[in-house]
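Our preliminary data section would be incomplete without showing what the modeling component actually yields. Below, a chain of 396 amino acids is followed by its predicted structure, encoded as tokens that our downstream tools consume directly.
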Amino acid sequence: MWLAKLSGRQRLECAAAVLAATVIVLIGATRKSQPPPAPPGLTVEMSIKEMAPRLGVTGKNLARELGLPLHGGKGRPVRVFGITQAELDHVAEHVLSHRGPALKYYILAAMVLLGLVYLVRLGRPDGSPVSQRRTWYPRWPYLVVLAASVGVCGFALGKSPNPMEGAVKVFKSMVGLYPSIVEKALALAFFGALAVVGSKLICGWACPFGALQELIYHLPILKKIKRRKFPFVVTNTIRALIFLAMLLMLFGLVGDMQGFVLYHYINPFNLFDLDFETISVVITILVAVVVSFGFYRPFCQFICPFGLLSWLLDRLSIFRVKVDRDLCTECGACIIACPLDAAKDRVAGKIFPAECFSCARCLNVCPTDAISYGLVGMKRGDPAKPGNDGGGEQCQ
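Predicted structure:
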């Protein structure tokens, strides 16, 4: 068994990581803040100016949610614009659903910590020779964390906060849809920091919808289809164009659409609140789930705005997959194991390689032990990485 093969030092590190993750979650639990219930007394006889402060949003945001013009008429009862009480109650509930529990931030951080320790220190038992590489990095610890992400950070705690909305709400604040840009910027900085700690660790190990796609893809079916990969240049271009389109519409640079948020209509995180307010959301969820059976994380590859931003941040990652050029024979084993173009681009030494979700699939297939996951700039065999034999410089 993999755990039995870990060295004494690794077992201590494992215990320390679990303890640290538990402490992080407990700290978050003491500061937990549940979303407030829909405020009583909201009626269609009230104006947007009266209701917005109670909901904690700006008048522009509430007007957009109600489908009204962003400018003008905020002092008049919403009844005169044809808004019914049922519509108002639904909008109020939707707005408040974006206030997720603070505990979720702590749990996401704890999951990233566990993933990082596993990849850097625990996946490969100290002193284990390359002949035993097939036993390195077993899948079950990864799957356990993914399942916890879906169950706890998804269905139990709801859709908010999540990396996707973290990337979008900053720009919504810039056009006045939220009262404070600082709060949204701090949320984005939190998710960005988790991405920088390890190559897209927040996406690969903790994001609930990313985890759901990963678990579906992991099912042992459609193996021939799974050998096919979308070219990264294609997926990243589509993702960037969608992001650009969102910005143009949000800032009113295309037509009269200021305040329009494209991602609201293709947001799969609504699944975790069972909130299927538009048919486009339902279609997005169904397509992402079905395609995940044969292709790796389709929503992450083609649509997610945070996926795009975290790819840009990847060059700042402190820990990541590294290829030792002195040992690499370019046999292609890692390229076959990788569900994306990440391994291929790293072996080729590209400056801006395809995104890597730190899934560990490449870390136990190399016959020459040329691949590792570790601190950028550290050589194999350094004292801080016991259990590794010597080698040359890494290509990162």
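Residues 191 and 375 are 20 Å apart (CA to CA). The chain has two domains: 2-30+101-312, 48-96. Preliminary results of this kind motivate Aim 1 of the renewal.
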